[in-house]
């Protein structure tokens, strides 16, 4: 089957791209999705307590505001329902091929089309939009003797609700955003819970609250109020950027908020010392929780302040040498972010493999166009995430640029666009310069930074506003045709 545009993935990015294309009248689009539902992250993550720590009205598309959010911070299932609704209302569902695993994507110079092989058949297209996600491939620690473990193993993003933790001895590994949400729920159910903390997170108060039916009705009655509210939330979130780039008053205030929260919720000085981070606040994601510290302080969770290094029969082994007999091992150990698995299946000009192009870390011009990979647009790839603001803002900006470029290709009768090596290098240098001196490169271990190059390859170092403006500027420039140098 030949179509103009194929989008790989029906998560937030794929839905954003599909919606923008259809809204611009470009409906020769197919979306390939390996699962049987839309939603990506929010379809996959069903661990107890899964929710978002970005305010609900901001964690939504600007073009599909939702007046009916019921909580200040939405649950995972409410977000998943929202995404299903957007996919339906934007007319995407008939264009999605569910249960279709993309196995190979190769550019063919002869007919200037991408050949896309999938588990359910072959496709070709002029433009290929990769929207396969950055938090989609679970990462598990490599454990010597791993196969000897006799208990049940679950990654946080592959939670099996049929496994009842009642009466079970559980170990949770990791202290990131996922762990902080699930630990209080696991502790409330399991017979015992031990938490392996390799590094302590910074946690600030969450302050969740229901949104009253009256507020929902007011938002439904007046779209302007809803848009204004979203804009206010966006501006408030943007203010969080200063603490990440300057070691000044904002960072000191954020650190004080987190340490006060810890002091208030954990009275025991020894435990508090173990829960005090040893790196700069903001280097990793700052977490929001009101029930994480109390679960630990109450004694319901035993804190093991070291890494999981091995298993042996029904025991898990900590770097400290401590061993714990358990029934269920919960790996809240994050995702493969710096080396997206799809990259090894993408072959550009002259058979160049995207994973090889990204051997030192992900790079792209305008965060989306990769030299040597004509008519390829990567969403949610290099430098397209934010720690302090909503992913929807970023993905919407990328989807807008994708739609703008594709529309202009039609209007200007351009068959092939491609970033030049120089344009990609210049953009990367610009990102590197903006990353220098930021808290993200201050020395902690995080999924934002490529372990091979030490570069900030996942996070955009600027504000969401700057991202939007930078991509809009690209949309205004002459189309990047292959032979042409593109000004960065
Ligand atoms: P993560 O932030 O990458 O955290 C993984 C955790 O596993 C880290 O604490 C890491 O320790 C730990 N770890 C890895 N191997 C270990 C080992 N052998 N022993 C002990 N600990 C080990 O993953 P995540 O919590 O799934 O979150 C990923 C991202 O998903 C977040 O940053 C966020 O962007 C997103 N998320 C968002 C929300 C939300 O509310 N918006 C909720 C959940 C997730 P170190 O810290 O020492 O590396």
Can you characterise this structure?
- With 488 residues, the protein is α/β, with parallel strands linked by helices.
- It folds into 2 domains: 2-38 and 92-137 and 336-476, FAD/NAD(P)-binding domain (3-Layer(bba) Sandwich), CATH 3.50.50.60; 146-209 and 218-235 and 246-331, 3-Layer(bba) Sandwich (FAD/NAD(P)-binding domain), CATH 3.50.50.60.
- The protein has helices at residues 12-23, 41-44, 76-89, 177-189, 213-221, 223-238, 242-245, 249-265, 269-274, 292-297, 354-357, 391-411, 421-435, 464-476, and strands at 2-8, 29-32, 96-97, 102-108, 113-118, 121-130, 152-155, 169-173, 192-196, 203-204, 287-288, 301-304, 308-312, 315-318, 323-325, 328-331, 346-347, 376-378.
- β4 and β5 (113-118) form a beta hairpin.
- α1 packs parallel to α12 (391-411).
- The longest helix is centred in the last third of the chain and has 21 residues, at 391-411.
- The protein is globular.
- It binds NADP nicotinamide-adenine-dinucleotide phosphate.
- NADP nicotinamide-adenine-dinucleotide phosphate is lined by residues 51-54, 135, 141, 156, 173-179, 181, 196, 198-199, 285, 307-308, 332-335, 445, 447.
Radius of gyration, Cα only, in angstroms? 23 Å
Overall average pLDDT: 97
The residue fraction in helices comes out at 25-40%
Instruction: Name the CATH class of the largest domain.
Output: Alpha Beta
The assigned CATH architecture of the largest domain is 3-Layer(bba) Sandwich
* Low-pLDDT segments: 484-488
How many domains? The number is 2
Note the gap between the termini.
36 Å
Which structural class best describes the helix and strand composition?
A: alpha/beta
Number of helices: 14
Bound molecules: NADP nicotinamide-adenine-dinucleotide phosphate
- What do we call the CATH topology of the largest domain? FAD/NAD(P)-binding domain
